[in-house]
């Protein structure tokens, strides 16, 4: 089988980038995978695990001769990283990403990569609270959704190649405008992460009758706050990059929480039961893949 890309550079060989590296190698989609990162220990682990053919911290060595470059770093670093790669990239090199925010990021990448090659925004919805090359696994994207966010400037052939890349590692690929992506993800991804952090902070170091509340947390609290174990840098970047949509989502959640507070305060058993039952029914519609 002819590889989709002769040389693929993945900048950021953590959970998502490392998993993509492992998956494309396992599927034979690329001839060579080059891993780029800022931490020597993580790059060494990626190399030891066979996630990449070679690793480097040097931008020039990372992208030299690469057909495509995947930015798998926090969204706030991607535009600067593209600018650092630009002088060393071959003409026509395809630039794509895995960021959880698309509208501002894709515009920034198109500006930073103009005159070099095509840009295709992508977001595989397959993360977890784990991080680093040690968390990477080749089956991470199997059966998961990956959203591509073309713009009027997107090259259709490049879009097709990025689609083939994600389909090749088992993802279910869908396309939508960047702004639509950001509105959706603000509600089903970015909001839940902030709520998890907020719930942990609300309980915090509270003590009741000399007992620390967190010491009594059971599976409900642990399940609800699991994603609060995610890297703070990553989610700070995402929240700020998608501030308008996330602000609206926070307002919607606040209204829903206010309604529950009113029902509890009024001891309205019928109203509270109806509200909880309606939410339970909606929860039952989740397909479980994300």
Would you give an account of this structure?
With 290 residues, the protein is of the alpha/beta class. The chain has 2 domains: 5-176, 3-Layer(aba) Sandwich (Rossmann fold), CATH 3.40.50.720; 180-283, Orthogonal Bundle (6-phosphogluconate dehydrogenase C-terminal fold). The chain has helices at residues 15-27, 40-48, 59-63, 75-85, 103-113, 156-168, 178-203, 219-224, 232-241, 243-265, 269-283; strands spanning 5-11, 30-36, 54-56, 68-71, 94-97, 119-120, 122-124, 145-148, 172-175, 207-208, 211-212. The strands form 3 sheets. It has a 6-stranded parallel sheet with strand order 3-2-1-4-5-6, sandwiched between helices. α2 (40-48) links the parallel β2 (30-36) and β3 (54-56). The longest helix is centred in the middle third of the chain and has 26 residues, at 178-203. The radius of gyration is 21 Å and the shape is elongated. The mean pLDDT is 95.
Give keywords.
6-phosphogluconate dehydrogenase C-terminal fold, 2 domains, elongated, Rossmann fold, alpha/beta, three-stranded mixed beta sheet
Gist of the model:
This protein is an alpha/beta fold and 290 residues long. Helices cover 49% and strands 14% of the residues.
Tell me the layout of helices and strands:
Elements (H helix, E strand, L loop, with lengths): L4 E7 L3 H13 L2 E7 L3 H9 L5 E3 L2 H5 L4 E4 L3 H11 L8 E4 L5 H11 L5 E2 L1 E3 L20 E4 L7 H13 L3 E4 L2 H26 L3 E2 L2 E2 L6 H6 L7 H10 L1 H23 L3 H15 L7
Parallel strand pairs: 1-2, 1-4, 2-3, 4-5, 5-6, 8-9
Antiparallel strand pairs: 7-8, 10-11
Structural class: alpha/beta
What's the CATH architecture of the largest domain?
A: 3-Layer(aba) Sandwich
The dominant shape is elongated
CATH topology of the largest domain: Rossmann fold
CA radius of gyration: 21 Å
Helicity range of the residues? Answer: 40-55%
């Amino acid at each position: 089988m002819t590889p989709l890309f002769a040389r693929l550079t993945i900048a950021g060989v953590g959970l998502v980038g490392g998993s993509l590296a492992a998956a494309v190698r396992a599927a034979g989609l690329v001839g060579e995978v080059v891993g780029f990162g800022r931490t020597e220990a993580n790059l060494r682990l990626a190399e030891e695990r066979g996630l990449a053919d070679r690793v480097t911290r040097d931008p020039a060595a990372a992208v030299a001769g690469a057909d495509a470059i995947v930015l798998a770093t926090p969204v706030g670093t991607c535009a600067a990283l593209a600018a650092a790669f630009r002088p060393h990239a071959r003409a026509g090199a395809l630039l794509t990403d895995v960021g959880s925010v698309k509208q501002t990021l894709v515009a920034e990448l198109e500006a930073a990569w103009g005159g070099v090659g095509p840009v295709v925004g992508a977001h595989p919805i397959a993360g977890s609270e784990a991080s680093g090359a040690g968390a990477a696994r080749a089956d991470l994207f199997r059966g998961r959704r990956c959203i591509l966010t073309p713009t009027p400037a997107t090259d259709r052939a490049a879009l097709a190649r990025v689609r083939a890349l994600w389909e090749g590692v088992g993802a279910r690929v869908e396309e939508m405008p960047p702004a639509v992506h950001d509105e959706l993800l603000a509600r089903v991804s970015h909001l839940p992460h902030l709520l998890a952090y907020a719930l942990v902070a609300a309980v915090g170091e509270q003590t009741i009758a000399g007992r620390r509340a967190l010491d009594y947390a059971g599976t409900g609290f642990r399940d609800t706050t699991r994603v609060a174990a995610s890297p703070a840098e990553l989610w700070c970047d995402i929240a700020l990059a998608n501030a308008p949509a996330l602000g609206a989502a926070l307002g919607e959640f606040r209204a829903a929480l206010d309604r529950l507070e009113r029902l509890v305060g009024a001891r309205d058993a019928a109203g509270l039961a109806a509200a909880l039952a309606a939410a339970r029914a909606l929860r039952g519609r989740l397909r479980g893949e994300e």
